[in-house]
Each structure stands twice: as C-alpha cells, then as structure tokens.
Amino acid sequence: MEHLSRQTMGDRDLEREVLALFVQQALSVDEKLPGADKSQRLLLAHALKGSARGVGASAIADWAVAFERQPEDDRLVKKLGPLVEDVREASLWGDFARQLTCAAE
Fold first, then answer.
1. Model confidence over 44-77: pLDDT tens digits?
2. Which pairs from 5-11 meet CB under 8 Å and 24+ separation?
3. What is the four-CA torsion angle of 19, 104, 10, 95, rounded to 10 degrees?
4. For the stretch 71-83, what's the b/e string if a residue is b when 16 or more beta carbons lie within 10 angstroms of its beta carbon?
5. Alpha carbon separation from 12 to 23, 25, 52, 64 (Å, rounded)
6. In this predicted structure, which of 62-71, 83-92, 93-102 has the lowest mean pLDDT?
7. Residue pLDDT, tens place only, 8-35
8. Residue 97 CB partners (closer than 8 Å, separation 6+)
9. 91: burial class by Cβ within 10 Å (0-12, 13-18, 19+)?
10. Dihedral over alpha carbons 16, 17, 22, 25 (to 10 degrees)
11. Sequence-distant (≥ 6) Cβ neighbours of residue 80 within 8 angstroms
C-alpha cells in the first residue's frame, strides 16, 4: 500500500482510516452486486474502481475494469470477495509490521 502512504503523506492514522473506509465500501459492493441489475452493477463497479485506484488496490481496480466490460458475468462477481479479503489482510499485516518496527526502535 505504498501508493496510499504517499497519498496520505505518511500519516499512518489517516492511512488506516482511508483503507478501512475503502474495505467497507468494497464489502458493501460485494454484498450488493448479486442482487443488482446491470445498470446498478456498472455504477457500483465504476465507483469501486475509482476508490481502488485512489488507495492503490490495483487488483480490485483491474477487477472493476473487467467487470465494467461484462457486468452480467456472475463468475466475476464471485471474484471480488477474495480480492477484498486480500486487501484487508494486507492492511492488517501492514499494521502488524509497523508495530514491530516501532517496538524495535
């Protein structure tokens, strides 16, 4: 999440807050997609793509680009959840690594 660190000018608290908001948004999109019509799916994917690019979650941004091309592909719908979990886990590991670094100093 180096991109996010640059976007937040190294402010770790702000970075965590922005990332938590992004994960919350992505989870919401993942929850809404199965019951959404094509138009809603496109809007959800487009919004998520912008947010993903903003925090540097390139895998989710790439997923959104693919999904915008095929919004009715339910196989793609199922791929979002694991990508969101990857971002959540990476953020948790990032917090853990920062805590270890601070403790060692």
1. 999 999 999 999 899 999 999 999 999 999 999 9
2. 7/54, 7/55, 7/56
3. 0
4. beeeebbeebeeb
5. 16, 20, 18, 27
6. 93-102
7. 888 888 888 898 899 999 999 999 999 9
8. none
9. buried
10. 140
11. 26, 29, 30, 33, 60, 63, 67
Do residues 48 and 64 lie in contact, with contact meaning Cβ atoms separated by under 8 Å?
yes
**Which residue's structure tokens are 């969101």?**
84
d(CA 74, CA 65): 15
99 pLDDT higher than 70 = no
Structure tokens at 64: 């959104």
DSSP state of 8: T
